[in-house]
Amino acid sequence: MAVAGFFRSARESFAVGWKIESNWTDPVLFATYRIVQPLASLMIVAFIVIIGGTYGTGLPKDYLARLIVSNAFFVYVAQVMMTMGWLVHTDRSRYEVLKNIYISPGTLHPYMVGRSLVSVLNATISVIISLLFSVLLFNGLLNLGLPLDLLAVNLLLLVPAVVLGCASLIAIGYILCAVNIVSNRMEFILAESVSGIFFLLGGVLFPPSALPEWVQPLSAALPVTHFLAAVRDSFFPAAGLGTYLVDMGYLALATAVTALVGVLIFRVAEHRAKQLGLFDRKSEY
Length: 285
Description:
With 285 residues, the chain is an all-alpha fold. The chain has one domain. The chain is 77% helix and 0% strand. It is built from 10 helices and no strands. The longest helix is centred in the last third of the chain and has 36 residues, at 241-276.
C-alpha cells in the first residue's frame, strides 16, 4: 500500500507539475520555447568547432559527433537542476503551498519525484528534436558526413543509461531542494552554478583526461560524467561492450551514493526547517 500510495502521489504531482510548466503560455509558444532553447546552445558549440576546424587543421568529425550527442543529452542535467533548484522557492514563496504539502498525510518525496519527472519528459522531447535537427543540418544540408547515425543507436544500451542517469540527477536535485529549504535566495544561482560545474567537469566539451590532474578525481566522482559516457557508448559502439559496462557500473555506484547522501541531507534539512518554521517563510524582493 505504501508503494502504491507513493506512485499515486508522484503521478498526481507529475500532473500538477506539467500544468505549471506548460500553462504559462499558449501551446505553440511553449513548444517553440522547448525546441529553440536546447538547439541554441547546441548550435553555438557545434559551429564554434566547425569554424575552428575550417581555419585550423581540419574538421574533427568524430569529436563533433560526440560533442553533439553530449550537448543534446546534457539537457537532462540542465532541466532537472533548474526544476529542482527552483521547486522549493516557487512552492513556498510564490504559490505558498509547500507547508500544505508538508502537513498532508504523505511526504514531500513523491511530490518532488513527480515534479522532477516533468523535467525529464521535457528534456526527452528536447533531446529527440536536437538530435534529429543536428542530423538534418550537419549531415543533410551541410553534408559534413559526421559519423552520427540515429538508426544505428543501440537502444538496449541507451535506455538503461538514460534511466539510471535521470535517477542520479533527481538524487542531486534532492540536495538542491535541501539547500533551498534552509536558505534564502539561493535559488537564483544554485541551479545554474551546479549545471555549470557539471558542464565543465562532466565530459561534455572534452574528455575528463584533458582536465588538470587534481580535478580528474572530482570529474570521475560525478554521476554526470559516467551518464554521458554511457550514452556516447550506445551511439558509438567502437569502444566495445566492456567499456559501456564499466561506465554503467560506475554510474550505478555513483547514483546509489548520491541517492543515499541526497536523502540524508534532505532529512536533516527537513528537520531543521521544521524546528525553525521555515516551510512557510516568504522571501520579499
